[in-house]
């Protein structure tokens, strides 16, 4: 699988609200169950309910696999999917 950073820009305030309401109700186990399969695996999300954008790290075979895994949620955003083959993890 390849590494991708996806910038999800909400299509409207209503879509942003729907996103944060839906994700607030999901446990991490629920997220894993819905956003991980043999073609794509959601890794990390960075978001702020006050902003019109959220960022995600995905491992996937193709960008289409990310959109397919998101299902109907993909329609809430403009999805800018960029492959990121170079990763330097220097986290504490």
Oligomer: single chain
Poorly predicted spans: none
* CATH topology call: Alpha-Beta Plaits
CATH class: Alpha Beta
Present the secondary structure layout.
Layout (H helix, E strand, L loop, with lengths): L1 E9 L2 H12 L3 H7 L5 E8 L5 E8 L2 H8 L6 E7 L9
Antiparallel strand pairs: 1-3, 1-4, 2-3
Description:
By secondary structure, the chain is of the alpha+beta class. The protein has a single domain, classed as Alpha-Beta Plaits, CATH 3.30.70.1060. The protein is built from three helices and four strands. A four-stranded antiparallel beta sheet has the order 2-3-1-4. The longest helix is centred in the first third of the chain and has 12 residues. The model has no long low-confidence stretch (mean pLDDT 91).
Short key terms for the protein model shown above:
92 residues, alpha+beta, Alpha-Beta Plaits, 4-stranded antiparallel sheet, globular
What's the gist of this structure?
The protein is of the alpha+beta class. The protein contains three helices and four strands; from the N terminus they run βααββαβ.
